[in-house]
């Protein structure tokens, strides 16, 4: 789990087993994380694999199912570098159901990643 090691949830929506509408999480990236020390020293960047893991963990919280795992990624676009020193707080929006989930990672200025994926237990 990356929660409390790479990021911390500062705002979360009420859980919903069915999903449906937009669920917006606000998270704060932790620049002192060991992941940022390795990726990359002097210019930390959030790895793409970590962004996928963040979405998975937030979906587990939202749908109330800690066994949800990414089964298939239909579409994935990394659109900007997510640097914790410049963008420490971001929003992660989830929309849909575990079987068909859309996610975006963004702040007020930039869209960092857009994902369309399927989760299953």
Please describe what this structure looks like.
This protein is 17% helix and 42% strand. By secondary structure, the protein is of the alpha+beta class. The chain has a single domain, classed as Roll (Thiol Ester Dehydrase, Chain A), CATH 3.10.129.10. Strands 1-2-4-5-6-3 form a 6-stranded antiparallel sheet, covered by helices on one side. β4 and β5 (100-106) form a beta hairpin. It is globular and about 40 Å long. The model has no long low-confidence stretch (mean pLDDT 95).
Can you summarize the main beta sheet?
6 strands, antiparallel
Number of E-type strands: 6
Number of domains: 1
CATH class call: Alpha Beta
* Fold-level CATH name: Thiol Ester Dehydrase, Chain A
How are the strands ordered across the major sheet? Answer: 1-2-4-5-6-3
Low-confidence stretches: none
Distance between the termini: 16 Å
Short description:
The protein has 121 residues and is an alpha+beta fold. Helix content is 17%, strand content 42%.
